[in-house]
Write a structure and sequence with these properties.
The protein is an all-alpha fold. Helices cover 75% and strands 0% of the residues.
Length: 140
């Protein structure tokens, strides 16, 4: 039996983890915030505009072009307006929390595969500081 067969203990626990996430009330709220954003054309357009403008300014700056104060002010005003939009703001918060959840679960699984055991709090703390198995400093 391999680890990835449908009836393996690893896959059963993976499904249990997924079920726990899906059943969590806070997760359901985050999903609703994302869905509400996806259904709101105005909020999506505002987000897309700010995102594209931010990338444009970043590329200009990275290329060594000095940004005009008006460009910066206009971008900041658009970003502030985006953050005042309740739907867009809730989406951005939800997106951040969901990404953090994904990163944290991934970190635990990756460290388990690297270490051959469940990582301890100390292992996690060291990885976050860039130590063993976090920054590749120990050959992991």
């Amino acid at each position: 039996m391999t680890l990835l067969t449908e009836t393996s203990p690893v896959m059963e626990k993976t499904r249990e983890l997924c079920a726990a996430i899906a059943a969590d009330g806070h997760f359901a709220k985050l999903q609703k915030d994302v869905e509400r954003f996806l259904d709101d054309d105005a909020a999506r357009l505002m987000y897309q505009t700010v995102h594209e403008r931010g990338e444009e300014l970043h590329h200009k700056q990275h290329a060594g072009v000095k940004l005009a104060p008006t460009e910066i002010r206009e971008f900041e005003a658009a970003r502030d307006e985006l953050m005042r939009n309740e739907v867009a703001s809730a989406f951005l918060d939800a997106q951040g929390e969901l990404e953090s959840l994904q990163r944290t679960i991934g970190k635990y699984v990756n460290m388990t595969l690297e270490l051959g055991r469940v990582p301890t709090d100390k292992d996690i703390a060291e990885a976050e500081k860039g130590g063993c198995c976090g920054g590749g400093g120990c050959g992991c």
